[in-house]
Amino acid sequence: MTLLEVAGVSKVFPGVRALDDVSFALRPGEVHALVGENGAGKSTLIKVLTGVYRPDAGELRYQGEPVSFATPMDAQRAGISTIYQEVNLIPLMSVAQNLFLGREPRTTLGLVDRARMDREARDILAGYGVTTDVRARLGSLPLGAQQMVALACAVMIDAKVVVMDEPTSSLEPREVETLFGVIQDLHERGIGIIYVSHRMDELYRICDTVTILRDGKLVHTGRLADLERVRLVALMLGREVSDVRREGFTVFSGDHAAADDTPVLRVSGLSSRNRLHDISFGVRPGEVVGLGGLLGAGRSETIKAIAGAYPVDRGEIEVDGAPLRHPTTVKAVAAGIAVQPEDRKAEGIIPGLSIRENIALSILPRMSTFGLVSDAKIDEVVDRFMKRLRIKAAGPHQRVGDLSGGNQQKVLLARLLATGPKVLLLDEPTRGIDVGAKAEVQALIDELAAEGLGVVLVSSDAEELVEGSGRVVVLRDGAVVGVLTGDDVTTESLLATIAEAGA
Amino acid sequence: MTTLTLTTPRRADWLPKYGVYLAIAALIVYNAAFTPYFLTVSNLRIQLIQVAPIIIVALGMALVIGTEGIDLSVGAVMALVAALIPLYLGYGVIAAVIVSLLAGVAVGLINGALVAKVGLQPIVATLALFVGGRGLAVVISDGQLKDIRNADLIYLGSGDLLGIPVLVWTAALAILVVAFTVRRTVFGRRLLAIGGNRPAAELAGLPVQRVLITVYVLCAVLAAIAGLLSVGRIQSSDASSIGLLIELSAITAVVVGGTPLTGGRVRVLGTVAGAVLMQLVIATMIKNNLPPSTTEMVQAAIILVAVYAARERKTR
Amino acid sequence: MTVLAVAQRRAGHAFQRQGALAVLAVVVLIALAAFPNFRSPDNAATILVAAAPPMLIALGMTFVIITGGIDLSVGSLYVLGGVLASWASQYGFVAAIAVPLAVCGAIGLLNGALIAYTGMAPFIVTLAALLGARGLMRAVSDEGSTTYIVQNDAFHTLGTGSLLGIGNQVWLVAIIVLLGMVVLSRTRFGNAVYAVGGSEDAAALMGVAVRRTRIGVYVLSGLLAGLAGTINAAKLGSGVTVLGAGMELDAIAAVVIGGTLLTGGAGTIAGTVAGVLLLGVIQNLINQVGDLNSNWQQVISGAFLALVVVAQTYLVRLRRT
């Protein structure tokens, strides 16, 4: 009997089909890996299973019965608990208060029985290898211990299903062992576990089955032991290992860099707290350098650090030979770096402003005299870029928030290009945009490189990364683990490097 | 992921956009028909003189709200100005004007630094001066109401130029300058971008801190001008009462004028219309012998309706 | 984590928890040494009696601020409560207390419901309530021209009488403050208040009734502000209609000085009590120095507020690293 399952579930958001006819089944006592890159639909699926979203199509069945959860609380009451990636507890409250929030033990007077609460909390946490002052603020605990509290919280309420979203991402090795011990225990008690992680070693150690999602679709489900590592990575990144076609799927045409050129961007020894470790690479004019690796490998952080939007502890950044010291976003843009962030809506476009204002945003000083903006100058630039990038809109005065994803992305790229950059940092430039726009954006990247720009490309699409880049720097856990050059820039070697590295 | 639709239709938002103008028109029609002596030159003059300082303060508030901020200290700035003027008026009206403007700059720098550099929420950052600013003003003036006899300052507050009060000219000039700043200058466009999406504005390389500090300085300077003119109008300086609760009137004017509290948009004319509407509401009620208690409760209701209507729903 | 960082963190916690109490102790010690008049028991009683109404308002404000909100309407509700109590005293003791509490509680309910259900910012909703409550007060008092005289002796005694040498209203406020401490630290509602302010999303996921909690704190704040006005009317024997009492600002200052985070999620009533008493003692000292302008009080409150808020911001940032 299955414990929790969905059949043919779909979920559509304005502009995006986040889940497309996905089926998934969890049996009691099973540890089920759920994998996929960003935007594959993992989190949407989890949210459908835990009552955050209601599916547009398809059926949710729990213990054999069709169910519909109105809120996450309903799901939790029914025995489906979730541990979210960023610990979803209340850091300013005590450990015991967090553990018992909303179900505090009470004395006969109806008051919270603190002594009992603290005692029980201590006992429960001891079972998870956490020995700490349960009256201390949760936020004062190391992240690993916080994660254990979250886990204890989730299991405490008589859970039959526990969803774990990257539970080990902030744990130390010793804490990971404790967690695995707890998972083993849950497994033996017949509790079903949905385990989301990108660490191959972990998946193969503790998971029985695996479900792989890509672009909102189910691409594989089955016993994990039967699936080779390289094949798992291939399925996630959208490439059949055994089926490398000569011509490829994308419109990239190849390398434009002259080997003897000096780098337009040089990064050496870039380190940041415990997220980036000693990252070094260079980009020559006309070259597209890909940053490969799985989610959480440090690709976006590297890009942001170069753009001055992520704290840097050590390391040097040089643009066209000139060092960029203590980078800030203002200095980076002035030095000729233009960045397209991963999250277009949160950090890219200004949705309430027009296409025109968005494109002109970074170059306002050039479009003005004595602080007064010249509309004629802006119109000229905006017109040029709208034509060049083929931005489809009612006109330059349309609100960017009302455009499709692809056109929003083009507006954003137009803003970057308008600054006349030397280096383009592109983080997932084709995510969430339709096929036509995708091809146009890829062609544009190619064209820009041909014009002599240095481009750094991050993409979770292995195809796009390999065919778009002349060289691929592969990252893992914030450090460079390999560089693919020349004939080595193939999906096989990319996947092999990622899988080898253990991910 | 696949893109399904090209555009999402916009919610009909006529109420925050045009509601204020319709309401003004309706009130004028009503008063023209039913209120005796309403459409007379002398009445219009009184209404304009009364609303002018509110407009000046509200313009600055609109800029701050455009950055998704708020400034509770504007009334305190007016009080500070009222306290400082008598001390420097002896050196002439120019000195008084300069000191007033400097006081505005100083307060604006403190607010701006707390918001942009320290990273406090705007309401918290401006709360300290909201609490302490007026007290400081009363301390400076030693709690005394001082008569103003300087003819130049009285002219600024009560005099006429070409038959129209200088106060009204100043408000008109402020409207033009602020409208021009928002629409035509680099600063104005950056301000809207920061209010619309601050992380994006930062990544686009905008000098976010500088713009924010400038906005708070502008708002405080406008409040200082309003304080200066009010002292000239009342012909006395009373730090304990001048500009009391004007932050409320200013915020009301801004939100009634259709500027959302969530930032990214500034309606300059709407703000002016918002101030005028509230003035008309009060005048209409007074002329129709409704007590101040009713006026206040009606004002409270209008604020709530306006904020509710201008509330930006999450688009996606 | 380095030893230094741990020490800094400890210092930060201590500052936040006991800062106001420490400053209060220092100020009282200095005052005892420097001002002979400060030492008299009468003076201590004066301070406590004067602090009684602000204490109630600050108590309610503490709950509101811990949820991450703010209530600017309490000053108006305080005045309204006083006027209603005086007016209702002609119908007896119970009416004198029940009427102001019912009306102020209802306005608090309206505040809370608007904030919880429409998502409008607490400051704008309660600013409107400030205006509305003031209008209501004027309507009740014939546009401020009527001052109702308290007509019930029992009610009047509540404000003027004393027990064991301590004023009745000080007893009353002390009991309510203790109750408030129990509610905040020992009930599910109290835990929910912290949870909503600490992380609304997490609280909702863990099953806390976020809306009900929000509404609850504004009702509580309205009730306490009304009660503060009520006991003040009992003391004065009339409902004073003076406007712009600025009580909301004093209350916010006291709460923040007492270590409650304006961003929500943390704070204690003990801290608020220390904050209120600190401001009360300072006011008392200013009065003793005769020729000092009493408006120094506001200046000192504002300066303290700025100092505490900036210090908190840096401490919170420190703790995150």
From TrEMBL, chain A:
Cross-referenced PROSITE patterns: ABC_TRANSPORTER_1, ABC_TRANSPORTER_2
Keywords (A to Z) from UniProt: ATP-binding, Nucleotide-binding, Repeat, Transport
Domain of life assignment: Bacteria
One Pfam family recorded for the sequence: ABC_tran
Domain ABC transporter as annotated: residue spans: 4-240, 259-502
Molecular function GO labels: ATP binding
Chaperone found in the keyword field: no
PANTHER family per the UniProt record, alphabetical: CARBOHYDRATE TRANSPORT ATP-BINDING PROTEIN MG119-RELATED, GALACTOFURANOSE TRANSPORTER ATP-BINDING PROTEIN YTFR
Protein name: Sugar ABC transporter ATP-binding protein
Originating organism: Actinoplanes flavus
Phylogenetic classification of the source organism: Bacteria, Bacillati, Actinomycetota, Actinomycetes, Micromonosporales
From TrEMBL, chain B:
Top-rank taxon: Bacteria
Membrane-spanning parts: 20-39, 45-65, 72-89, 95-116, 123-141, 161-182, 211-230, 242-261, 268-286, 292-310
Membrane topology summary: Multi-pass membrane protein
Keywords: Cell membrane, Membrane, Transmembrane, Transmembrane helix
Xref: InterPro entries: ABC_transp_permease (IPR001851)
Compartments reported by the entry: Cell membrane
One Pfam family recorded for the sequence: BPD_transp_2
PANTHER family: ABC TRANSPORTER PERMEASE PROTEIN YPHD-RELATED-RELATED, GALACTOFURANOSE TRANSPORTER PERMEASE PROTEIN YTFT
Protein name: ABC transporter permease
TrEMBL record, chain C:
UniProt-annotated location(s): Cell membrane
Listed transmembrane segments: 20-38, 45-70, 90-110, 117-137, 157-184, 215-234, 269-286, 298-316
Primary localization class, coarse: membrane
Keywords: Cell membrane, Membrane, Transmembrane, Transmembrane helix
Membrane keyword on record: yes
Pfam family, one: BPD_transp_2
Entries under InterPro entries matching the protein: ABC_transp_permease (IPR001851)
Mode of membrane association: Multi-pass membrane protein
Keyword NAD annotated: no
Protein name listed in UniProt: ABC transporter permease
Taxonomic placement: Bacteria, Bacillati, Actinomycetota, Actinomycetes, Micromonosporales
